[in-house]
Design a protein that fits this description.
The complex is a heterodimer of chains A (about 260) and B (about 180). With about 260 residues, chain A is an alpha+beta fold. Chain A is built from 7 helices and 12 strands. Helices cover about 35% and strands about 35% of the residues of chain A. In chain A, strand 3 and strand 4 form a beta hairpin. Chain A starts with a helix and ends in a 9-residue tail after the last strand. Chain B has 2 domains: about 90 residues, RNA polymerase sigma factor, region 2, helix turn helix motif (Rna Polymerase Sigma Factor, Chain: A, Orthogonal Bundle), CATH 1.10.1740; about 70 residues, Arc Repressor Mutant, subunit A. Chain B has 8 helices and no strands. Chain B is globular, with a radius of gyration of 18 Å. Chain B starts with 5 loop residues before the first helix and ends with a helix. Classes of the chains: A alpha+beta (about 260), B mainly alpha (about 180).
């Protein structure tokens, strides 16, 4: 009797065919990665950020001692950037129209793909991660999406111009609380909670822990004007100055910077 | 979305960037793509990773799709290329063979008897497939398991039909020897 090769192979294949739910999970991961790829292609300005960050990160690794800077007296620093430091610093703190447009598109697309499941999007120096609940629990806020930008700017000793050293954009909903790992590094932690106030301002609780390009760790409770970049912390390391800037604005609203 | 042709979905996705079109394409083809890859790599983790890689390659090379062939032909060729490249890498940098975990994502619920018989048969077939070269394995997977015609399989493998025919013939002969004539 001849062995039924085709029959054996087909039975074998049936045993190794995954369940539909399993395939759906893979399909979901592919869609998220495709969204990320497309977003990265359409946000060319971030590409330069990657190489700049890479150089700075490399330099930071080479440094023997990293200085732990605790954020102290945050209220003192919580001043509108444009008023104190000039429009150029404000420009560094605000996302460009292209960057905002790309995030709007990504948020709209992924919200449509994962209805009631998308919690947040984080873009950190060229890397994008999406926070998607496994099931739409409906526990997240339905408030309009906001764009929170945190920028660490650096001015090398003897120079007058500030440069972006680290940037993280988070799209989240007001009254929501998100915990994320910027650059998808486990030791990087960023917790954000937003509460829009009636006077055109927004209360932001921020807990941050990053180690490159500068080790920054601390908690910030700020009230800032929507669309007004605020300097929330300042540091000095080896003669180089750093400032941590924060901006909150509606994802789909007009740029509200008054500077 | 079900009544929209693959090529039209791809075009809509390329033009608008709206993920729902690409998502529909993924869900339409993911089962077959993974079923083509799994018998080639013979473990779930690699099959899952390569399946993802195939669809991301599609995204990255949408402009390369000229519509001269069906989307599925183009997709299956990408799938087989990606898999062959992976197997070459694995040959150059061999790692310990990854066995499937006990909770691997099998689709059908089997009775205990079926399971025991199936496990024995499974191991024999897996071993026999593993013993074939990638090109012979691909030929038998595409035709016997996927039910492709020689012409379709030859397109996916980017070879002449005569070559594919010979490979199928050789693969069957070897499998018969290894699975044992009764």
């Amino acid at each position: 009797m001849k062995t039924d090769i085709d029959g054996l192979l087909k039975d074998w294949s049936a045993r190794h065919s995954p369940k539909q739910e399993y395939l759906d999970q893979i399909a979901g991961r592919i869609a998220v990665d495709a969204a990320r790829q497309r977003y990265l292609r359409h946000s060319a300005p971030f590409a330069t950020g990657i190489s700049l960050w890479g150089k700075l990160a490399y330099g930071a690794v080479g440094a023997c001692v990293a200085v732990l800077v605790m954020v102290i007296g945050v209220g003192y620093f919580n001043a509108v950037v444009a008023r104190n430091s000039g429009a150029s610093l404000a420009a560094l703190a605000l996302p460009s129209a292209t960057q905002r447009g790309s995030l709007q598109e990504l948020f709209a697309e992924t919200s449509r793909l994962f209805p009631n499941q998308l919690r947040w999007i984080v873009q950190s120096n060229g890397d994008v991660a999406l926070g998607v609940e496994s099931e739409g629990t409906g526990q997240g806020s339905n408030a309009p999406a906001m764009l929170v930008r945190l920028v660490l700017v650096k001015r090398t000793a003897g120079e007058t111009t500030w440069k972006q050293a680290w940037t993280t954009d988070v799209v989240m909903r007001g009254e929501d609380r998100v915990e994320i790992s910027p650059n998808r590094k486990e030791h990087n932690k960023l917790t954000l909670w937003l509460y829009p106030l009636e006077n055109g301002k927004v209360a932001v609780d921020t807990s941050i822990a990053i180690d490159q390009p500068l080790r920054v760790s601390g908690r910030l409770d700020t009230v800032i004007g929507i669309g007004e970049p605020a300097e929330v912390a300042a540091y000095n390391k080896g003669g180089d100055e750093y400032k941590l800037l924060q901006t909150v604005e509606p994802l789909n609203g007009k740029q509200a910077c008054k500077s | 979305m079900d009544d929209i042709a693959d090529e039209h979905l791809l075009e809509k996705y390329a033009d608008s960037g709206e993920l729902r079109y690409f998502d529909a394409l993924i869900r339409r083809h993911i089962g077959k793509v993974r079923a083509m890859i799994y018998p080639m790599v013979l473990n779930d983790a690699d099959a899952d990773e390569l399946t993802q890689e195939v669809f991301l390659r599609v995204v990255g090379s949408i402009q390369g799709f000229k519509g001269q062939s069906a989307f599925s032909t183009w997709l299956y060729r990408i799938a087989m290329n990606t898999t062959h490249n992976f197997l070459k890498r694995r040959t150059r940098n061999p790692v310990e063979h990854r066995e499937n975990p006990p909770d691997s994502p099998g689709g059908k619920n089997w009775s205990p008897t079926e399971t025991i018989m199936g496990m024995e048969s499974d191991a024999r077939v897996t071993k026999a497939l593993e013993s074939l070269s990638p090109s012979l394995r691909a030929a038998i997977v595409l035709t016997a398991i996927q039910g492709m015609s020689l012409k379709e399989a030859a397109k996916a493998e980017h070879c002449l039909m005569a070559t594919l025919y010979w490979r199928v013939h050789q693969a069957r002969k070897l499998l018969r020897e290894r699975l044992g004539e009764e």
